[in-house]
Amino acid sequence: MAVGIFAGIPVRDCESAVDWYTRLLGKEPAFWPNEVEAVWQLAEGRYVYVIEDTARAGGGVGMIWVEDPASEVDRIAARGLQPVEKEQHGNVCKWIFHDADGNEMGIGGETVPAP
User: Fold this and answer.
1) Rounded CA separation 12/10 (Å)
2) What is the dihedral sign for C-alpha 98, 4, 92, 27?
3) pLDDT along the chain (115 residues), means of 10
4) Which pLDDT score is estimated for 34?
5) Which domains does the chain have, with CATH numbers?
6) Which residues pair with 61 in a beta bridge?
7) Which of 27, 51, 47, 55 shows the shortest CA–CA distance to 37?
8) Taxonomically, which superkingdom (predicted)?
9) Which helix (H) or strand (E) covers residue 108, if one does?
10) Is the pTM of this model over 0.70?
11) CA nearest neighbour of 86 among 111, 67, 50, 103
């Protein structure tokens, strides 16, 4: 079975959310289905999108698993966003970011301890 995902994040203001998620993800949206949704393609068959939905804004939780999470967090910091927390679970780390609505987006993956 092939697996893909199209995960949505409800926000109060699509335009300002697009700015924040563009900085987090390091690229502009791949496409806009309409004026209140913007979609980023993370990998083949894997998408994340913001949707303007004030009633549900702020309740989103997600994590993007990457090969080298510490380096990715450094790149995100260079674009002006800082994590609010870091979790360590064995050799897996997760850096937590919050958008303006309080949605949580983690950047995580396996880390290799320094020799």
Assistant:
1) 7
2) negative
3) 92 97 98 98 96 96 95 97 96 97 97 66
4) 97
5) 5-110 (3.10.180.10)
6) 104
7) 51
8) Bacteria
9) strand 104-110
10) yes
11) 111
